[in-house]
Amino acid sequence: MKRTRVKDWLIGAAGMLLVLGVMAVILWWSVSAPAGGGEAGPVPSPTAGAGSPPSAQPPADLREDEVWLADVALDAGTLVSGTSTLRDVRAVGQDVITSPDGLVAGRLTVDATVPFEAVASKLGDGTVVSSADGGQAMVVRTVTILGREVRVTATGTVEVKAGKLVVEPRSIDVGGPDFLSDATAAVVRRFVTIEHSIEGLPDGLVLQDVAVQGDGFRANLRGEDVKLDP
Fold this sequence. Notes:
Layout: H1 4-31, E1 67-81, E2 84-99, E3 102-115, H2 116-123, E4 128-132, E5 136-145, E6 148-161, E7 164-173, H3 178-188, E8 194-196, E9 206-213, E10 216-227
């Protein structure tokens, strides 16, 4: 399944955090002594930094067979799941509960870069997608019109529509006189319009924002009550 690898990765990382937490507790007990059991002076309590948020509290109905994590942050340079490739991935989960029934994040935010080549491959062989001036994206591809091949260059702004990454051309150039480009633009527009769904992530995440950067489209996705298990 497309999402199996990323889900396994998230589950494994969460398990590692739990192991590290248990090791930290064991280390603390080994280097400390019960209160009042020695001559050491009082230890001052730590002071929260300015603007620190109040400590999160576990749910009151947490079962004995469940483990609660206030927040979990995971990073990956590259994430590949099925036919989907993402780079510079950062996932932050809050109110995460693991149980025999699975792993669920009360809130999950994912920031990731969709490489230009991943989007270009969905449009057809020979297509090139890149960044353009003014935060726009550029699409260059060859299309066949009336039995003739035409090299088309289109630029447009990126936005989110119905949960998809969309780039609609604002300008289309097929070379030659302006009147030729204008007459051909309506015909080739659909060939250089991008509508890309971000795959390879758990169900329940919804694309919120997207921007063009030097190596791809930087996407922000968020969701609530997101199941992370297969």
